[in-house]
Amino acid sequence: MPRSSPCPLCGAFARTEAGTQVLPVMDNRYPAQDLQYRTVSYLVCDQCGTVSQHPLPTAAALNCYYANTPPPRTVADTRAYKTPVLKDRLDLLQKITGLTCGRCLEIGCADRALLDLVADCWGLETVGLEPAPIANDGYSPHRIFHGTLADLVASKELEPASCDLVICRHVLEHVHDPALFLDQLTGFVANRGWVLLEVPSSLLLASDGNYHIGQNIHTTHLHHFTGPGLTSAITERGLAVVHLSDRDEGRCPCLCLVATGGLDAGKLFARQLACQQRSSRRAAAELAALLEIDATAADGVLVWGAGVDLLGVLQYLPVELQARLCVYDANPAKQNHKLLAASILDDHALENLAPRLILAGVSNRTLLEDIRDAATARFPGVPFRSLFRI
Question: Could you tell me the CATH superfamily of domain 70-263?
Answer without folding.
Answer: Vaccinia Virus protein VP39 (3.40.50.150)
